[in-house]
Amino acid sequence: MFKRLFGGDRNANRAITDALYGEIVAAARQPVLYSDWNVPDTPLGRFEMLSLHMFLFQHRLRGEAGVSREIAQELTDDFFTDLDHSLRELGIGDAGVPKRMKKLARMFYGRTKSYDDALEAGDRAALAAALARNVRPEAGDWPQADALAGYVFEAVAALARQPSAAIHGGAIGFPAPQPG
């Protein structure tokens, strides 16, 4: 992991990935998402926001090789380890965790595909529809989906401006969603 950048110091590597993952989790827990934009503050709603922010991080590093690719893989591993721990904390037994992990992995990768397709097309309406379908499937009409889609486009632009070297050092900053 990150040998080219840090030699073999696993503690430094862990500190970097922990810092990055901490920023991703903090961004996914921004209160505006839940209080103003009506993302359900439930385990599934928190999964949706963590998945979205993991997608944004992965999207930022997409196409980069070397250390960026290694960090992206390490954080993906951390994300799925975190999901495993969360399932166990929710009381899911050892026998049920693998089946649920497979389902969550399918959900995550399905979402990343639909979000990526909408971003690549520059289609805010398609992104809002995908977000609504995933975050509030039972709501029918979710007016805040457009605000969340706007935030995603803003986050993509903000992350694109951040140098890879800063990310390699453990720093990444997500924009603050604006109440509305």
From TrEMBL:
Domain Ubiquinol-cytochrome c chaperone: 36-168
Family: Belongs to the CBP3 family. Belongs to the UPF0174 family.
InterPro entries attached to this UniProt entry: Ubiq_cyt_c_chap, Ubiqinol_cyt_c_chaperone_CPB3, Ubq_cyt-c_CBP3-rel
Organism: Mesorhizobium alhagi CCNWXJ12-2
Protein name: Ubiquinol-cytochrome c chaperone domain-containing protein
